[in-house]
Specification:
heterodimer; A: about 220 residues; alpha/beta; Methyltransferase, Methionine Synthase (B12-binding Domains), Chain A, domain 1; 9 helices; 5 strands; about 55% helix; about 10% strand; B: about 230 residues; alpha+beta; NADH Oxidase; five-stranded antiparallel sheet; three-stranded antiparallel sheet; 10 strands; about 30% helix
């Protein structure tokens, strides 16, 4: 059964105002109305879309954006335990981790949370991940996106080696690179399809990289 | 080698709070969300429960400088900028090696955080706290009899500017870091987190407190704007 428009608006509003109590209230209302889990999930995710626009126009700060991400995460956690959850749209499969030798994972964890909250199907390999493990997991999970994080100039070159392997073994996978020591020029030099400068731009950049890849395929 | 416990109880709460806001992306007078204000206040409370930071330090005379390194009995620190900086010292400089850490206490605070936002804010609080503790240590050293009122430059850390990260080995060769519970992993990363390692130059008089004003890279994110010695 379709959920009421009011409940959908409520879910979106709960996310954009990062009000977890109100989200709980709206979730209960949605369950009572017999709303589908897919509709609930999409409502929360689209709530985050609105926030993203405000963030891009500097109307929102990163901490506020993270509060919204945390709100969606709590909602997704709530519904993920339900028996019909496995039948919901999984989203695009994405593998993420910090490269070999890179222990700084706060940024990667934030980006992984942003991706999850935006509806991606995230496989987080953690930190200091060996290059061959990235390649193996991308292939085994048929991941459409690989997101690599490196904060230090000493660990960043691993990104280049991983991309070379991915281009050979899983050429349809889009690779995004991010981290304090990188900029767009260096990411491109490493062969990345996109540069994830921050949590603010990562979703936009991912969309662009996916579109570019689709365009390349078409031509 | 000297050991120093820095009592962090007296760190000014407003300054700590201001530093956290700056680190999480707000200006000096932020227009924050009420939830963020509460979370920053909670982070301040948590981080202030770490009552002290432990430091070890030692000075060694400079035995030689080349265009690209500064050498002590422990070996060379390979940095062109640091070598350039020794030339503005008015007397034969010494190198101060130091490590300061919040210890394991930060990890337990960090692991208590259940949301991305609180982790982000607590991480900023830990960074601000250790930076303020390092500032207290430098002030203490500057006024201690062992330094005889000499000037001490700002810290120069491996992995920053043009000093490669493997410079950590030099600092850890000089100092018994295990005494304050700090170690290096195979990638030269210090454990636990919220630890600072650095070397400083010590000289009778220094016109600058860092080599930044001598450096042409104006857009460097780590550039220290103040041109004159200002400890």
């Amino acid at each position: 059964m379709k959920s009421g428009n009011k409940t959908i608006i409520g879910l979106k509003k709960a996310v954009s105002s990062h009000d977890r109590q109100y989200l709980q209230f709206c979730l209960r209302a949605a369950f009572e109305e017999g709303a589908g889990l897919n509709d609930i999930k999409s409502a929360m995710i689209s709530g985050l879309e609105g926030v993203k626009a405000r963030l891009m126009s500097n109307d929102f700060s990163i901490p506020e954006f993270l509060l919204c991400v945390d709100t969606v995460t709590s909602g997704l956690n709530e519904i993920s335990g339900m028996k019909d959850y496995s039948s919901t749209d999984k989203g695009i499969r994405l593998v993420i981790g910090t490269v070999d030798g890179e222990p700084h994972d706060l940024g990667k964890n934030i980006i992984a949370a942003v991706y999850r909250a935006a509806g991606y199907d995230v496989l987080d390999l953690g930190r200091q991940v060996a290059s061959d493990l990235f390649v193996r997991e991308v292939i085994n999970n048929d991941a459409k996106i690989l997101a690599l994080s490196a904060m230090m100039s000493t660990t960043a070159p691993a990104i280049k080696d991983i991309i070379v392997e991915i281009n050979i073994k899983s050429p349809h996978t889009v690779v995004l690179a991010g981290g304090a020591c990188l900029d767009r020029a260096l990411s491109e030099n490493y062969g990345a399809d996109g540069f994830a400068e921050s949590a603010v731009t990562v979703l936009e950049e991912t969309q662009k990289a996916l579109q570019n890849q689709a365009r390349t395929k078409d031509t | 080698m000297q050991f120093q416990r820095i009592i962090t109880d007296n760190i000014n709460t407003s300054r700590l709070r201001e530093g956290i806001y700056k680190k999480i992306g707000y200006g000096k007078k932020p227009d924050q969300d009420r939830t963020i204000i509460r979370m920053v206040d909670e982070a301040v409370c948590h981080i202030k429960k770490i009552r002290s930071a432990d430091a070890i330090y030692r000075t060694l005379p400079v035995t030689g400088t080349s265009k690209s390194s500064v050498t002590t009995a422990a070996g060379p620190a390979s940095s062109r900028k640091l070598a350039q900086f020794t030339r503005i010292c008015t007397s034969d400089p010494e190198v101060l090696f130091m490590i300061i850490t919040l210890g394991d206490s930060f990890r337990s605070i960090d692991s208590m955080q259940s949301t991305m936002c609180s982790k982000f804010i607590v991480d900023a609080a830990g960074s601000e706290m250790i930076e303020l503790a390092a500032e207290i240590l430098m002030g203490h050293l500057k006024n201690s009899p062992g330094f005889g009122g000499r000037d001490i430059s700002r810290g120069f850390s491996p992995g920053y500017c043009d000093w490669p990260l493997d410079g950590q080995r030099l600092i850890f060769d000089v100092l018994d870091a295990a005494r304050i519970g700090v170690c290096l992993d195979q990638y030269n990363i210090m454990l636990p987190s919220k630890t600072i390692s650095a070397i400083c130059l010590v000289s009778e008089k220094m016109l600058l407190s860092s080599p930044c004003p001598l450096c042409p890279e104006k857009s460097c994110p780590w550039r220290r704007e103040k041109q004159l010695y200002n400890y």
